[in-house]
Amino acid sequence: MKNVRFVLVPAALVIALVSFVSIGTAQQKMYQLSPAASVSQTAGVTDISVTYHCPGVKGREIWGKLVPYDQVWRAGANEATTVSFSTDVTVGGKQLKAGTYGFFVIPKHGQWIAIFNAQPKQWGAFSYDSTKDVVRVPVTPETIPNQERLSYIFADMTPTSIKLVLQWEKVALPVTIDLNTGANLAKAAKDAISMTWQEYNNYALFCLDSKIDWDKGMEAVDKSIAIDENASNLRMKAELLAQGGKTKEAIETAEKAIAVGKAASPRFNASEIQDLIDGWKK
Length: 282
Description:
Helices cover 34% and strands 28% of the residues. It has helices at residues 11-25, 181-191, 197-210, 214-227, 231-243, 247-264, 271-281, and strands spanning 36-43, 46-53, 81-85, 89-91, 94-96, 99-106, 112-117, 133-139, 142-155, 161-178. The protein has a 6-stranded antiparallel beta sheet with strand order 1-2-3-6-7-8, with no helix packed on it. The protein has a two-stranded antiparallel sheet with strand order 4-5.
């Protein structure tokens, strides 16, 4: 029988070896001078996402030098910046179908040009093809306090529009996006075989919040009530009636909303609806 020898290995060495193997097998995140970033926002019924890399100023002269005037720029660093929309939108009076687009900019001494291009996956603007531009829109740059890192934010959001704003150095470039919220909701309603009371109520909420299509809002909330009368859609109808100047009917409908809510649940909180009633009575 052969002799078997056991060698004791220090615990610290075992830990070091395991750590080394773990580091070697794990996917290592690479350091980037211009880190990857993304920002998303739901506006109206549209989800918007921007994916980009954010370079720093680092004491350099940016506009007209690092980023030349009158040339297509990737609007970021590394891969081309991309913008995705979950529904059809409108930019500069032109329709952008739901999908993902390459976003480019042409800096100028006056108005800049913002570009949504049908080829989202490309490195920088080296393979940029102007024949694949879907929308080109002039945009007036604004002066802001110095921003060391390039970033994108959303601003001035309403039920029907939002601004996508590129910020870097002392320049902000706001691109207005029309969300087509009414048209998108109407299309969804048309495509649906049937709609729930919540969906009709949601369309009425849009009409109330945006202060447009009051008649359609009333029509939608009446359909919601016809499917399932409850405190939520009765309150919605009351607020629409008040918005339309029908205060007496609004108070009566809101009082009914409280009664229906309490009948459905003894723990129903009527304080918000009562505040509305008190305000309308004044």
